[in-house]
Amino acid sequence: MTLINKESPNSLALDLSERIRHRIQSAEFTDGDFFLTEAELAEEYNVSRRIAREAVNRLCALGLLEGRKRKGLIVRHPDPVEVWANCLPSLARSPEKLADLAHFRYALEVGAIELAIKNASEEQITQLAALAEEFQQTAGTPEDRPRRIEVERQFHGLILEMSGSPIIADMQKLLATLFENSYPARETPVLAEETNQRIIWQHFELVDAIKDRDVERARSVLRSHLKYLLLTPPQTT
């Protein structure tokens, strides 16, 4: 029997949840395997049923366990993107956390450009060039603002898809959607013509750099293009 020191209920539940998580990972359970019941956990770790339930609830919230009536607990291997999707709306309510997420998005996109260039197909590059053209057509017209934002999302999403990593691509989609919802098109200002032209040029320059398989050039353009994400609070383009 594993003994847990007498501490506050929250500390006990957190400690127990970490022990259970480590046990699940160390034992290499497969998705859908049966684990223990709350009663069995409470007895084995010498804690109250309430502490065992709180620990289990923490792991269920993370998607690592699933409770089944009259059957006990089932081990799950959660999709990390799905877990993030459940957490992001709460994080977006804090300006500080939103700024952190903007920095994360910057690091994700700039960091993935090397993989994108390495793995991009000619068909994807052609699609990217078409999106750059459409972005240019919508960039200067206020009434086309929603379409401009959608094309921008597709442009960056395609670059992340080029990386060949579904997790990277899906994370970028989550973050892009988060910032679109945090800064609706109707609340963002119409950009000056000089700024519009610079952003249009950056799109075409990114396409050319990817086409030429020039990592450093693409990374330099992308850093400049996404530098607004490093501002506090984050701004939009």
TrEMBL record:
Q: Tell me where the signal peptide lies.
A: none
Keywords (alphabetical) are:
DNA-binding, Transcription, Transcription regulation
Top-level taxonomic group: Bacteria
**Species for this entry:** Gimesia chilikensis
Give all residue intervals belonging to the HTH gntR-type domain: 10-78
Gene responsible for this protein: lldR_1
**A GO MF term:** DNA-binding transcription factor activity
The protein depicted here goes by the name L-lactate dehydrogenase operon regulatory protein
